[in-house]
């Protein structure tokens, strides 16, 4: 079932963004249909006087924070945060704090603006600000974060999370031989075409590209395990190849990875609501599984998680738990899956491969979805959902177009009388608002164009909710379909044998490692 309150960790720069004038803030599910827009209008002194008390503003520096020393060499690197405070939701920080706890000593955290930064976005409990200004902002310059406040980070990072800083940290960490370096990436993803051009949005509006990370790892002397939790994070599965290029052959040194979504899919997460019980995402399942718990932190029977019975919970077993228990839009994948799809025969002989993680996903999802005894219907049902989803996206695109047209008419009517209302930085904005508040409010109340704009907004919200429901419904089906495909492809690759099978076994061994 779809979980209300789910947010997606996609970047506003992602492919597939809507072409409307504004970022349409969905009713609880943010898809990749987002666009960065102008800054928020200032709040008037009149409304500030009547507003409820507000917490300290996230501007600074309000306090000094010494960075955590770097271990030499680190066992793990955890990297994350948004490109700007608007995309630096509190759940990302919470996931990184949990990752630190689970991974233990010997690692380094690179988070958002770094030590002492104040850019963590937390949802407001009650509305604040001038309602008229909020109405104008929603019309002329919508953006995320206006219903949130910003506070100092609770982390104590070693550094900020910028593209250059992350690449340099990884370069130093893999410079000498050693055990696999675990790289944990959390935040908003950017879709790439081809996938090697995708990546993770980082602080300062920079991007860690898959191909750039591959170049650094290619030059290193240490294997790596990469875990990425963002939208389109399956693009990092290209790291299985040298230069993240499928034509270049397998990467050396070996590297493997586990990812919250395929290269084409969005992922759940990135929530400004600090209540963990209201959140959903790959990280909650994956990290809690590594410590023997469910998404809410409750203890689970060992047999629920230890799928090979060796007494330990591996990265791949925690990944399987997220595939089984996740209620969001995630379709997790791995480097071993990517390797299978690149090298396994599409037909021919098969030999049974020991894949307890795939067996568990197939058995438990089949039972949960009601496919026990009718396994042959899975693929056809999935195709039908994909068709429904395509039609829903078409309706959303049409509704967004109507919203854009309605916006232009409403904006033109308002600006014809009050030319600076779309520019809160203009010196005449505040005087115009002060002198004509009643006139502006009356125009909006009586305007047919503005009423049509609000109706178009509601239509878009309805279409977004439909898409969100179908994304969640299709996610579990796609996880089951992919697990069945993995088992089939692995059997054929094992029958063929040779170097490709040996590499698949090496990838599995890497993915089955411990943090």
Averaged pLDDT, please? 89
Please identify the top-level CATH class of the domain at 76-126 and 149-378 and 497-511.
Alpha Beta
Give the radius of gyration: 24 Å
What is the strand tally? 11
User: Unreliable runs, pLDDT <50, ≥5 residues?
Assistant: 1-5, 13-61
CATH fold topology of the domain at 76-126 and 149-378 and 497-511: Rossmann fold
- 3D shape: globular
- Read across the widest sheet, the strand sequence of neighbours is 2-1-5-9-10-11
How much of the sequence lies in strands comes to 5-15%
Distance between the termini: 31 Å
What is the second-level CATH architecture of the domain at 76-126 and 149-378 and 497-511? 3-Layer(aba) Sandwich
Number of helices: 15
Structural class: alpha/beta
Q: Could you give the order of the helices and strands? A: HEHEEHEHEEEEHEEHHHEHHHHHHH
> Quick one: biggest sheet?
6 strands, mixed
Q: What level of helicity do the residues show?
A: 40-55%
Explain what the structure shows.
The protein is an alpha/beta fold and 515 residues long. The chain has a domain of 296 residues: Rossmann fold (3-Layer(aba) Sandwich). 42% of the residues lie in helices and 9% in strands. The chain contains 15 helices and 11 strands. The strands form 3 sheets. It has a 6-stranded mixed beta sheet, sandwiched between helices. Helix 8 packs parallel to helix 10. The longest helix has 49 residues. The two termini are 31 Å apart. The N terminus is likely disordered.
